[in-house]
Design goal:
Length: 387
């Protein structure tokens, strides 16, 4: 089976290019719209909250669809159309409603595409990083471009500027197709009850989900307030984009290196290292916000706290959920790990920000990382033979 490398990479490029425009600058965009820190954290908690429901529901629809790729295409188009509402002068309530619709579609399609990519890869899943790295390339290009653009025009132009990136996402979804290795709908229906539901009783699955949730909680202040944090310490939009780019550049290097790493280090040991490095990253970010070199070094840790950790979890969950059931595995990982973890992380970040600003928020991230390290050290991610 020939791997459609270019088409898979193009989707990741487009998806994360849109995210590279959205993540660093949506918080400042909301601030320009008149929202305070707590309101911003509530909006962003909804962004993560939709990951709890949208991906699992989308996964069920995908598993029962005759042509799952049609759902991916429809979801990408709906993502673009719903985002256009941010062009309007919305108040807080309407911003919440639009975020609910937009993030439901945007968050639903990624787990489906992750499962599609893994199905194309077959047994050679260590090559995943070489495809996923193009998402990081898209992120950093959009990140730097939008930093320069919004530095010149202002954060209020974000909604209009993002539309071409979301249009590219819709086109890349249309260019992809279902993998021939996936079982038919009838085969996947029979396999779901027999193989997926019993896995929810496997302790290692919940250890993985818990660890992923804690890593997402640790990233809460980063994804919600990092740009606002830098802005309050006098950094211009271009400099803010550069700090994000440093992290993504390190992430790209790790995605290229990760096949070699995972061939030599177990996923569990790698995840433990990621939590330990993460704790140090957040302490440095909390204590040295006005030291550019220290912040840049801390951003380099994104290679571990995101890229290495993500690759380890993707490889682990794909072993539990093979074939088309991988859609359910990815949705579960995304919904509980990123969804619940994202909501908790965003709300805790907002609460700590009100109490002690960015310093308190990022020290909270360090605490979450230490708890995650304890979980991974204490329990096994290996499925027992009797399970």
């Amino acid at each position: 089976m020939t791997l459609p490398y270019t088409r898979l990479a193009a989707f990741y490029f487009a998806y994360y290019a849109a995210l590279g425009a959205f993540s660093p600058y949506f918080g400042p965009f909301l601030k320009v719209r008149g929202l305070d820190a707590w309101q911003i954290s509530v909006v962003m908690s909804l962004w993560y909250g939709t990951r709890m429901l949208a991906p699992p529901l989308w996964g069920v629809a995908t598993a029962h669809a005759r042509r799952p790729i049609s759902l991916l295409r429809a979801g990408a188009l709906a993502t673009m159309l719903s985002f256009t509402a941010f062009l309007l002068p919305l108040d807080f309530t309407w911003i919440l409603l639009v975020m609910l619709v937009f993030s439901s579609f945007y968050n639903a399609i990624l787990p489906q595409f992750e499962a599609l990519t893994l199905a194309h890869l077959g047994e050679d899943k260590r090559r995943y990083g070489r495809i996923r790295v193009w998402g990081s390339v898209g992120f950093v290009i959009a990140n730097l471009s939008f930093g320069a653009l919004l530095g010149a025009l202002g954060y209020g132009w974000l909604a209009l500027a993002m539309l071409p990136a979301l249009g590219l996402l819709a086109l890349s979804a249309w260019a992809n197709s279902d993998p021939p290795a996936w079982p038919s709908k009838d085969e996947s229906d029979a396999g779901f009850m027999a193989s997926v539901l019993p896995l929810l009783r496997v302790p290692a699955v919940w250890v993985l989900l818990g660890a992923t949730m804690l890593m997402q909680i640790a990233h809460g202040p980063f994804y919600v307030f990092f740009s606002v944090y830098l802005d309050e310490h006098g950094y211009a939009a271009g400099s803010i984009g550069a700090f994000w780019a440093v992290g993504v550049a390190a992430e790209i290097c790790m995605f290229l290196w990760i096949p070699w790493v995972l061939a030599r280090v177990s996923a569990q040991r790698l995840m433990l290292a990621c939590f330990a490095i993460g704790a140090l990253r957040w302490v440095v970010t909390a204590i040295f916000p006005e030291a550019p070199f220290a912040l840049a070094l801390a951003q380099c840790a994104h290679a571990f706290t995101f890229a290495a950790f993500h690759s380890a979890t993707i490889q682990t969950v794909s072993g539990f959920f093979p074939g088309r059931s991988g859609v359910h595995g990815q949705a579960l990982l995304y919904g509980i790990g990123s969804g619940i973890g994202g909501v908790i992380g965003a709300l805790i970040a907002g609460g700590l920000w009100e109490l002690g600003g960015g310093t308190a928020s990022f020290l909270g991230s360090a605490v979450a990382s230490l708890v995650g390290a304890w979980v991974v050290l204490r329990w096994s991610l290996v499925r027992e033979a009797s399970a």
